Amino acid sequence: MANQTDSGSISPTMPVILSACRTPITDSYKGSLASVDVRDLAALVVTESIRRAGIDANLVDDVILGEVLQGGGCIARYAAIAAGLPADTPGLSMNRQCASGLSAVSAAAASIAAGMDEVVVAGGAENMTQSPLTYRKAPYPYGAPELFISPSHPDTADAPNMNMVVTVGENTARELGITRQQVDQWAWDSHRKAVAAIAEGRFVEEIVPVSVPGMGGAVSVIDTDEHPRANSTLEKLGSLRVLSGWPDGVVTAGNSSPLNDGAAALVVASAGRAQQEGIEPLARIRSWAAAGV
Predict the structure, then answer these.
(1) What per-residue confidence (pLDDT) applies to 230?
(2) What is the 3 state secondary structure string of the chain?
(3) What residues form DSSP beta bridges with 147?
(4) How far, in Å, CA of 281 to CA of 53, rounded?
(5) How does pLDDT run across 74-125, given as a tens digit for each residue?
(6) Which residues does 265 contact at the CB level (< 8 Å), separation at least 6?
(7) How far apart are alpha carbons 51 and 34 in whole angstroms?
(8) In angstroms, rounded to a whole number, what is the distance separating the alpha carbons of residues 243 and 213?
(9) Confidence band of 161 (pLDDT split at 50, 70, 90)
(10) Rounded CA separation 55/15 (Å)
(11) Residues near 202 by Cβ (< 8 Å), separated by ≥ 6?
């Protein structure tokens, strides 16, 4: 990748980050963002990332967003238009499962490094609460449609489609000798750190508040992450049932990644364009990689 010139100076096509923002992250089904359309979450962070970057919206070459459970259409194109970008701004929606958002960022960086684009908004959005259900047509006339979950990979014993995260987690724990106690300790530490960071206001600057309409015309402003548990304890985590049912299992609902609703976006630009616009980058994107599990 062209990160630097032979003289050591930064290449004009070096991808740099000009801004970044996100909504609060809330629990699916019972969280405060459960009723907010994923397209609205995406449009909100795309709009705010451009504003924070201080760059002319007409300079945005593309919008690339990751979304795992897509229901048709192109969320990136929708967000671009909803954010007020010119009508000829394209949009690209990506799906690499849990890595979809970061893959959108790497795709933006690759396009910029190749000299194809100069300014790209990239990120991801997901509303697991409202994730679409897919029905497969019956293979005969007048047959009833069948609920169908599209598999992300061929079904195997090591990575079954219906509980892949649990099985892969258990296999990894066995391979590396990770105990239930270690996993629970890690989860508890994560909750404690997140709760402390929220209390200290460490996330305030990066969060874009979301206005959520309620009953009788009331509007709630959601500006805080909701999943971290202040009342979590090692004893509570240790009492939870192992999801795999394995006698020596380690993966539980308490030490696993939850289902959430939210969105995030950043503006990636070439170093040359950032210099022309007089914008100081937050960071450089030097390299990236992806691997299947």
Answers:
(1) 92
(2) CCCECCCCCECCCCEEEEEEEECCCEECCCCCCCCCCHHHHHHHHHHHHHHHHCCCHHHCCEEEEECCCCCCCCHHHHHHHHCCCCCCCCEEEECECECHHHHHHHHHHHHHHCCCCCEEEEEEEEEHHHCCCCEECCCCCCCCCEECCCCCCCCCCCCCCCCHHHHHHHHHHHHHCCCHHHHHHHHHHHHHHHHHHHHCCCCCCCECCEEEECHHHCEEEECCCCCCCCCCCHHHHHCCCECCCCCCCCCECCCCCCCEEEEEEEEEEEHHHHHHHCCCCCEECCCCCCCCC
(3) 135
(4) 9
(5) 999 999 999 999 999 999 999 998 999 999 999 999 999 999 999 999 999 9
(6) 20, 21, 22, 42, 45, 46, 48, 49, 65, 121, 122, 123, 124
(7) 26
(8) 36
(9) confident
(10) 15
(11) none
Query: Which pair of structure tokens corresponds to residue 264?
Result: 């995030």
Structure tokens at 168: 């892969």
Task: Check the CA dihedral 58-211-131-205 and report its sign.
Answer: positive
Q: How far apart are the first and last CA of the chain?
A: 25
pTM of this prediction? 0.91
Contact 110, 14 (CB under 8 A): no
Task: Give which of 202, 221, 262 is closest to 67, Cα–Cα.
Answer: 262
Which residues lie below 8 Å from residue 46, measured CB to CB, with a gap of 6+? 63, 65, 79, 80, 82, 83, 121, 123, 265
- The pLDDT, as a whole number, for residue 142 is 85
Domains (ranges, CATH) in the chain?
15-132+259-284 (3.40.47.10)
pLDDT band per the 50, 70, 90 thresholds, residue 9: confident
